[in-house]
Amino acid sequence: MRRFLAERTKRLLLSSSLYSSKPTACSSPFFSRSAAASMSSSSAPPADVTVESINPKVVKCEYAVRGEIVSIAQRLQQELQTKPGSHPFDEILYCNIGNPQSLGQQPVTFFREVLALCDHPAILDRDETHALFSSDSIARAWEILDQIPGRATGAYSHSQGIKGLRDAIAAGIAARDGYPSNSDDIFLTDGASPAVHMMMQLLLRSEKDGILCPIPQYPLYSASIALHGGSLVPYYLDEATGWGLETSAVKKQLEDARTKGISVRALVVINPGNPTGQVLAEENQRAIVEFCKEEGLVLLADEVYQENIYVEDKNFNSFKKIARSMGYGEEDLALVSFQSVSKGYYGECGKRGGYMEVTGFSPEVREQIYKVASVNLCSNISGQILASLIMNPPKVGDESYESYIAEKDGILQSLARRAKALEDAFNSLEGVTCNKAEGAMYLFPRLDLSQKAIEAAKAAKVAPDAFYARRLLNATGIVVVPGSGFGQAPGTWHIRCTILPQEEKIPAIISRFKAFHEAFMEEFRA
Amino acid sequence: MRRFLAERTKRLLLSSSLYSSKPTACSSPFFSRSAAASMSSSSAPPADVTVESINPKVVKCEYAVRGEIVSIAQRLQQELQTKPGSHPFDEILYCNIGNPQSLGQQPVTFFREVLALCDHPAILDRDETHALFSSDSIARAWEILDQIPGRATGAYSHSQGIKGLRDAIAAGIAARDGYPSNSDDIFLTDGASPAVHMMMQLLLRSEKDGILCPIPQYPLYSASIALHGGSLVPYYLDEATGWGLETSAVKKQLEDARTKGISVRALVVINPGNPTGQVLAEENQRAIVEFCKEEGLVLLADEVYQENIYVEDKNFNSFKKIARSMGYGEEDLALVSFQSVSKGYYGECGKRGGYMEVTGFSPEVREQIYKVASVNLCSNISGQILASLIMNPPKVGDESYESYIAEKDGILQSLARRAKALEDAFNSLEGVTCNKAEGAMYLFPRLDLSQKAIEAAKAAKVAPDAFYARRLLNATGIVVVPGSGFGQAPGTWHIRCTILPQEEKIPAIISRFKAFHEAFMEEFRA
């Protein structure tokens, strides 16, 4: 070894001195410091990295939920801090994103107890711990640690996630659906988004490959399809029937795409709907399953809002349950279900936990999915643990059960009240119609804007609903996402507004919104 | 609303009954349950998703660190559990991956205390907490919570990460380098891998775009380049000079690629080296910076092993420090530095924390990077917090300082001893030469295999070093990665072996390795 090092040093010094004798030669790989410094003044751009020379798929991709409107909001927020009273409102109300805890929703105590104990297992044996943590959270932490080889919560796990946690999730799915689930089908991910990207990356070869997506849609799908170079094949949800999905309309879009030479690989369904908030009827789901089977489409089921249902007459049915209830098994339908810890009553967006359940693919393709997962090694362990907890919460008899249920019901009942209050408020406004918020975390009211308002938007070079959203923000501090960020039927305009602001703030939000809306309508009355 | 719902229900029932009257029509979007069930027996494949019909970039991608050898190891481990004594060893020793805590390394107490407190802030005010947690971990948790809007550790953060944490990281970088760092340049990510993918996605438009990568290389780079459809332009590290990097050789490769019509966008440097363990000399780093500036290449600096240096005569210098010391600023060089919480003395692989520091890009391109980051909303908050802690650990005077330093030094000194012991052991074996482990977590010994062994490998249809690694695993339970998984000079064979097994196990590993190697050499002696 010493010999190697000596040689190496000699050689480097040699080459260094050799080249520094002609420091201006462009081909020279070595420069003296002075020569280097002298060049730093050159105004020539460094690497040729411009918006024109980077990946056009990146440039094409759009993500409205964190788009321009949010940049304006962040600027306003800074101005409020530096110059209090500089705006007609004293806080920014972020109704643009499903981020409950950012608006004051509290985490579920049991979940956080277990996460904290798994982060610092050294305290599990200490007496004081029993005074600070519930007995079942301590028991659960031990249970989880025993499922982790070497109890090493700081180690990379299996690339699909820790086996014991996947077992718990599979058991939770089986209990939910009444049909078996296999932990080998579970891929734990850092939230649902990376899982969606993984499937798009797998399925999309070129712009000749298409994915059927609902319009309006959550822009993760359009963004992911753009990033992976495929084509989005839109199918419109029917606002007149509460954002119903007509497979006959989907079939027409599919056939149009095929005549254009697009090979359609998959159909995305978001249930409960984002941004539209509807909960699909069971017969509607059966029709979708049948359609995907008949047409040989992978069914990508975004089911992250499965716990967010606010109406008596609707329940969540997973597409896997529906398919199995129709007698369809692995050999009949390729189905991927996405779940996340970010939504539901838990709303743990910052933990980036989630999973996809992958069924109906050949072992060879499954191996390819595993390989892609393995390149990123694994998802974060706290998120993995949390994903197992939401699918296996405290049970009757556990010390935490009653407080857990109280926290869960409190959050869901409050969300339902907020949804109803905002829905009624929107429907009370001139030129606004809003479908029922059956589920998810959003309302997607339709704005009937005057020609004068549309002209003003055109003059401002923005879509009419973006124009409205900007005016709303500047007047009230309320941040909503223009419908144009999700797609909408041509000639219709919407905004997406979350139902997440704290309940006690809702009345003020409604009155500020009303006042703005009336003034806006007056200003642009023809 | 009621009207809408009534209409909707009516329409769905109508269409449902309408269609179920002709259940066998393939074009029918609705089916009765019986008709559906009757179809499930059809053996026709579901969606056309085969290895032939998925994204060929996915199929092309390879990741040896979790490749075939690991699958074999997992099978053997199961056999050891189900049939103890079924193999000539009683445990599998995973020396294939830099996953310290999976092999018994303990987490740094202060880091875990802060993470636990941020996961469950409800206990911060409790008296018992002071008995369980150090006073500075409690103070740090408060400090971090105060940097998070609404103290909401369960909320999505800014897509680059929480501003206050980025400030702490930027301050840590500035203290490390002696040159300023800007928190707006920091993008927090779920480990370093997603950051590398993000840059590849940004830079690669087609197979006509190339990235200069060291050979041997950490296969994340070849995998990411394959997944994003670019071309890997190899440059060989010189084993004879302790894996030195000769920019003259790199330049030759660059020119060859350009004559082939490849537009080379960036150069990857891994320092300290993976899998090669070298620490680059300062003049060598200056030459690389100069080369990238001259050739207009983005410098992608993998600096995740910056804390892992085991020799007196070497220090870590960030490429940013080197560039600034040469007088080069933002306008001279586009530079991205990758850091991770998974390596160093902390080894927190499971937390998936990391960041990239992005300098020298135009505001327009930065906006594009931000947009891609925003599509995944944000990285996990625990990982973000941990990334800030490793760049801002306890200071002199803090209650945890002495125990923290003891833990840190204990881990690093033990790693240095293990590296030396394994290095000496490899160099003592017939036909094996091993460069000095100056840094990182790996040794990359070269195997001089007999023609007879190479023939036997050929007969087994595997690379000779994969043949050796398989034999080693089956005989000893030791898992190493064949050099062919990283790339190596044609006609040379290597294995990558981590230095991570617990120190008390090293002697046994060495003797098992020696015994296997001698038997292997005997068996295949010409």
UniProtKB/TrEMBL annotation, chains A, B:
Q: Which InterPro entries match?
A: ALAT1/2-like (IPR045088), Aminotransferase_I/II_large (IPR004839), PyrdxlP-dep_Trfase (IPR015424), PyrdxlP-dep_Trfase_major (IPR015421), PyrdxlP-dep_Trfase_small (IPR015422)
Pathway connected to this protein: Amino-acid degradation; L-alanine degradation via transaminase pathway; pyruvate from L-alanine: step 1/1; Photosynthesis; C4 acid pathway
Top-level enzyme category: transferase
Which residue intervals define the domain Aminotransferase class I/classII large in the entry? 151-506
Please give the cofactor(s) recorded in the UniProt entry for this protein.
pyridoxal 5'-phosphate
Keyword Transferase present in the record's keywords: the answer is yes
Q: Which SUPFAM superfamilies match?
A: PLP-dependent transferases (SSF53383)
State the reactions this protein catalyses: L-alanine + 2-oxoglutarate = pyruvate + L-glutamate
Its Enzyme Commission number(s) read 2.6.1.2
Keywords associated with the record: Aminotransferase, Pyridoxal phosphate, Transferase
Whether Ribonucleoprotein counts among this entry's keywords is no
Q: What Gene Ontology terms describe what this protein does at the molecular function level?
A: L-alanine:2-oxoglutarate aminotransferase activity; pyridoxal phosphate binding
Task: Please explain the role this protein plays, according to its UniProt record.
Answer: Transfer of C3 units between the cytosol of mesophyll and bundle sheath cells to maintain a nitrogen-carbon balance in the C4-dicarboxylic pathway.
The record's family statement is: Belongs to the class-I pyridoxal-phosphate-dependent aminotransferase family. Alanine aminotransferase subfamily.
Describe the protein's quaternary organization and the partners it interacts with: Homodimer.
PANTHER family reported in the protein's UniProt record: ALANINE AMINOTRANSFERASE, ALANINE TRANSAMINASE
Protein's UniProt name? Alanine aminotransferase 2
- In its UniProt entry, the species of origin is given as Iris pallida
